[in-house]
Amino acid sequence: MKNSKTPIIFTIIFMCSALLTACQKADSTPENDRSGYERYEYSTIASEDGFEAFAISPSGEILVGAGDGCLYSYDITGKLLENSTPGSFYGNFCYDGEKCYAYDYYQSAIVELSGDAPRVITNSILFQIIRNMVALDGKIYVLGIPYTAQSQEGMFTFGAQDFENYGEILYCINAENGTYTTLPLKNIIAECRTENGEIYFYGWEENKYYLYLYDNEKGKVTQKYHQDNMRNSLAVAVDGGYFFAMTPDAGLIAINLQTGEETSIAAQAYTMFGNDLQFYRGNVFLYDLGERALIQTAFVTEDGGLEIFAQEQPSDAETAGEPQKSVRDETIVVSGYANVYRSLKTGEIRNLTGMKTKLVDMPLDYESIVTELMAGNSDVDIYLLGTSSIFARQCRDLGIYESLQGSDIICGYLESCLASAQQAAKAENGDIWMLPLDIGTDMTWYVEENMEKFGLSPEDLGTAEHYLQTLERLQGNTGEYRYYSNALSFIFLCDSRYDLNYNDFANKKVDYFTDLYRWLAEKLWTGWDINSETPFHPLFHVLAQDYGSNFLGDIKDAHEYDKTRVIFKTDYDKSLLSYDFIGEEEINEQLAGWRAMPVPVLADPSEKLSAGLAFALLNPYGRQKEAALAYLEALVTGGIRTYNSPTSIFLREDLEAHESIYDTSLPVIRDMHEIYSQAVIELGYIWAPYTDYINEYQLGLISLDEALEKKQRQVEASLME
Known about the structure:
By secondary structure, this protein is α+β, with helices and mostly antiparallel strands. Strands 1, 22, 23, 24 and 25 form a 5-stranded antiparallel sheet that branches. It has a 5-stranded mixed sheet with strand order 27-26-28-34-29, sandwiched between helices. The longest helix has 17 residues, at 704-720. The two termini are 27 Å apart.
């Protein structure tokens, strides 16, 4: 799936930077002391819940923050030493000597993990995403995307294309007192620290990639290296005479800094963040996102050679006696949809189909997928995608899918789904062109008891006008009670409903110069700064105003889910259904007391309510179509499991189909099922929203009419693509 050849040359002998950047090959290379290198007989560390982060201490302890919220400690051979439940959720570990630093999601803080309790270093920086953390001599370098209105609503497909910039900032944080500065380096996409204490940043300028050697004491870049064939990399490591890089096109590669020779280390591996690639005493470790495993990929020998390790495969004994239903033994599934992160345990798929599977969650460029499919690309067997993209309609209308009509298992499953899902899954000729996996929409959650305390009824939240009037009435008068709605999310929610009901996307006709849309813009675009560090609309109250972050933390303790204090909230449907932290047994207890209703209508009670599907598309040009079909049948047979929920919530017509997980007698469960029964699923009517016109209008650079005109042009251009 990933292969390419790209040399890179590097030197740290002091010379004129102009000469360095002009050279294609350096005159000399760094001296490398490899005498301390040791090849370890390492056992792969895997977790069904996945890893949030890992780090290796100078003494060889591997610290893993797993998706189950626990911290695990291993020795350098992969042997478990201990595990603990820290009462928080950590990510992006890094070491400076024996001091370990981490990002604490619950406190939205950079912390030092020491003693009985973590020491907060700083909680004054709000991060949407942290891509990398490294530390040296009491300074912590954090490459992150700050929490802003734009980043909050953004979709970050790292590595989907070259020369990306999602607003990443390099922060240099004093580990003692928490003060920080931002480094004047732009377009940095990765960073690393060598074992001998050097900091490197990797990024691009003027459509060329560069490696920057940073002087920690002087606080500036001292060397800048460039090769014309440097390329996009999600994670880098510079050590042992090699440049290691996780590339979206070729997987993990190593480039010999002396000869420029490139070696493929793990072509099928995939990881998204810089801390997921680390070097320790000659050994290269990588967290493979697809396998959900920490693997040892290569070893640099004392003479500078490179030993490549094959990834562990199941033994014959493990697979003995399993049914063999497929002519091929492996199928590749690529996920581009956030809610479908892992569908079934690999072992379950193997038991059901007799095949191995590779599930890779990676950024996808929808336009390139259409191009690849039309060109007959056979590298990927199954795509996991969403209906909101225009891409979905293109695949259906152009016939670039493998029909699932011949599978009795899939036909039977589809017949049990909601009518809207059945309709969306069928092409005009009757083909089943995709397999629905999960359904989702926004809705308004409320606590009846708390609504009564403020004299509110569902009708007060039923229309956009009444909803905003309710926010005005409650503003500043709720005491310890809260209502939660994000202003920018509410804008997009209204846009989506407007597009579905008042525009004609199918015929590429849109009109935002109506009295209704002008009223929405005047109400929602004014009174706040969409690009401020605290992008809060005066009428709306969001979690970040209480916690300094948008991360919800432990559901049992999070303010948003405290039924004794929350009046209502408008949010994505899975916000009360996810039990990543709470556990399956307690979810029904948490749901008790809540009710749900559709998001506000804009004007007409007959307006359609939209829902979106995550779906699986079988590549008509795939080399393993029989195995891929068996995989989809296994999903249906074994029970579809998605990242945010244990089953295809409310995708089935029969509500009782979900009673093994949820108490279907709860009013809120029945509310949600009714909402989905009434919702419609349209393909590709949601365009990729921008907010530049709102920002310019707020700054007084353009009038409201000019802002509406700019929005109109953007949507029309999107529909013409």
